[in-house]
């Protein structure tokens, strides 16, 4: 009689052909040097983590790694359980979430990636690998934006006769248009005037549309505009400001204006030398390094790879190690508790 060999990993549902892919540059990205696929992969993980890991491992590179999309494909668990499983997989050394800027100048945007390794890696390996990724990104030249194609101007056909028509002779000559003074760049103070709102005001006004917990009124945006303007004066982009203000939000925000004011003050980035002070630098001076930022798998707080061991920031790492899942009690302990309770009941019975 043949003996059946069962794999220690659960059979995750097959990846649907319609599984959503992330935008180019986003989503899953496999780490190099992984061991070949075997039946014993993820055997040391708990049941839920084995289930999620088996599914993620079969996803192609570039697949969406959001908790919402994973929960749609894994019917056994909801979004909260999937999020907790991903945090456990990060601690086990299977994944890291990172964010990195791409582009140059006003075209800079933040790209979010999830690096995945079937083979569990320690913190030193992840730090070295992400440093190598950062070095390759720094060495790669940034392609300048393609110039906008200007359609050729067509010359209008010239009239065949040289004598003007009667209508042209009778039409009065239009007076020359007065010179229009150049529009000055002014910041909107929250009024209903014709001045255009500043980038700082617009960034604050759009926070509520990105996350309903951070909805601000017009007066709130006006009050916080000077603080946000300091960020733009230091060279940050709107995406950088938005991602910093929305990272790791609590489940409920009682005072959005107070929370944003506190973050604008506490997380103000350092001031870098402006272009005028560096105008005399040689042409062969290397560009400043734009490092990868690891994102905390639990709260989303960004940081350097060495500052987030196990892919978690310090508060989340402390919470995970302090309030982690405890081992179930032994059967002998349960039997002893039952015997003790039965003895107490016997003592409380009337004689």
How much of the polypeptide forms β-strand, as a percent range? 5-15%
Q: Count the strands? A: 5
> N- to C-terminal separation?
63 Å
Question: In angstroms, what is the radius of gyration?
Answer: 30 Å
> What share of the residues lie within helices?
25-40%
What's the mean pLDDT score?
A: 74
Strand order of the largest sheet: 1-3-2-4-5
Report the major sheet: 5 strands, mixed
Q: What order do the SSEs take from the amino end to the carboxyl end, as H and E? A: EHHHEEHHHHHHHEEHH
Question: Structural class, judged by helices and strands?
Answer: alpha+beta
Shape annotation? globular
Show unreliable segments: 1-9, 141-193, 275-281, 285-289
Helix run count: 12
Give your account of this protein's structure.
- It is a single chain.
- By secondary structure, this protein is of the alpha+beta class.
- Among the domains are: 8-141 and 291-321, no CATH class; 197-273, no CATH class.
- It is 36% helix and 7% strand.
- It contains twelve helices and five strands.
- It has helices at 47-57, 67-73, 79-91, 123-139, 166-170, 199-205, 207-210, 218-233, 238-246, 256-266, 314-322, 331-348, and strands spanning 27-30, 95-102, 109-116, 293-295, 302-303.
- The chain has a five-stranded mixed beta sheet with strand order 1-3-2-4-5.
- Helix 8 (218-233) packs parallel to helix 10 (256-266).
- It is globular, with a radius of gyration of 30 Å.
- Residues 1-9, 141-193, 275-281 and 285-289 have low confidence and may be disordered.
């Amino acid at each position: 009689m043949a003996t059946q060999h069962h794999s220690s990993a659960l059979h995750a549902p097959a990846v649907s052909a319609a599984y959503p892919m992330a935008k180019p540059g986003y989503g899953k990205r496999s780490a190099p040097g992984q061991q070949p696929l075997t039946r014993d992969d993820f055997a040391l993980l708990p049941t839920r983590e084995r289930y999620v890991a088996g599914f993620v491992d079969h996803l192609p590179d570039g697949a969406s790694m959001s908790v919402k999309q994973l929960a749609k494909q894994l019917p056994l668990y909801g979004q909260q359980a999937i999020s907790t499983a991903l945090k456990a997989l990060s601690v086990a050394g299977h994944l890291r979430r990172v964010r990195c800027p791409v582009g140059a100048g006003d075209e800079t945007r933040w790209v979010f990636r999830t690096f995945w390794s079937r083979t569990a890696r320690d913190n030193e390996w992840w730090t070295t690998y992400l440093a190598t990724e950062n070095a390759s990104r720094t060495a790669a030249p940034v392609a300048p934006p393609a110039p906008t194609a200007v359609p050729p101007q067509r010359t209008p056909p010239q009239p065949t006769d040289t004598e003007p028509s009667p209508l042209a002779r009778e039409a009065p000559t239009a007076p020359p248009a007065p010179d229009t003074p150049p529009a000055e760049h002014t910041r909107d103070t929250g009024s209903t005037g014709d001045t255009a709102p500043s980038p700082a005001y617009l960034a604050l006004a759009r926070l509520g549309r990105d996350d309903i917990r951070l909805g601000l009124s017009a007066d709130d945006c006006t009050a916080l505009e000077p603080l946000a303007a300091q960020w733009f004066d230091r060279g940050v982009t709107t995406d950088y400001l938005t991602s910093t203000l929305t990272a790791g939000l609590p489940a409920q925000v009682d005072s959005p204006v107070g929370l944003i004011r506190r973050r604008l003050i506490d997380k103000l980035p350092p001031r870098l030398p402006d272009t005028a002070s560096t105008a005399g630098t040689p042409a062969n001076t290397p560009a400043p390094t734009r490092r990868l930022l690891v994102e905390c798998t639990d709260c989303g707080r960004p940081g350097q790879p060495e500052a987030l061991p196990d892919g978690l920031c310090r508060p989340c790492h402390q919470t995970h190690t302090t309030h982690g899942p405890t081992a179930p009690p032994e059967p002998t302990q349960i039997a002893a508790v039952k015997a003790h309770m039965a003895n107490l009941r016997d003592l409380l019975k009337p004689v």
